[in-house]
Amino acid sequence: MSIRIYKEVYFEASHRLLHYEGKCFRLHGHQWRAELWVEGDIDADSQILVDYNMIKKVIDRYDHEVILNEEDPMVPCISNFQEVVTTKGDPTSELLSERIAREVEEECSKYGIAARVAKCRIWESTTCFAEWTP
């Protein structure tokens, strides 16, 4: 039986946009909101598609982290004090929506769960989000 589930997770993280002319070029933080719609066939024994906590654990990798473009000259400096999450390209809500969706799918695959992310929405503020769909 095919089904779709929904999970919403909040996380705090800072980022900056290296290739952007404007205030987002400066290191700053957000309370991000991730919304994921995951679909597939439920497990015959457990009657569960994906454990909601598994989705949360993937998103929690970003909680209280600094997220920077891997080319950002701040990476080596900040790395002297704490781990930095790096991205191929500027860590925009657009980039993070696809990246998080793919990470959730990889985690499902790792555990043999036949599920895919139908939609991933990443809110950078209360008024703007990016939405990735396959």
TrEMBL record:
Database matches in Pfam families: PTPS
CC cofactor: Zn(2+)
Gene3D superfamilies the UniProt entry points to: 6-pyruvoyl tetrahydropterin synthase/QueD
Entry keyword set: Lyase, Metal-binding, Zinc
GO molecular function: lyase activity; metal ion binding
Record-given protein name: 6-carboxytetrahydropterin synthase
Lineage: Archaea, Methanobacteriati, Methanobacteriota, Stenosarchaea group, Methanomicrobia
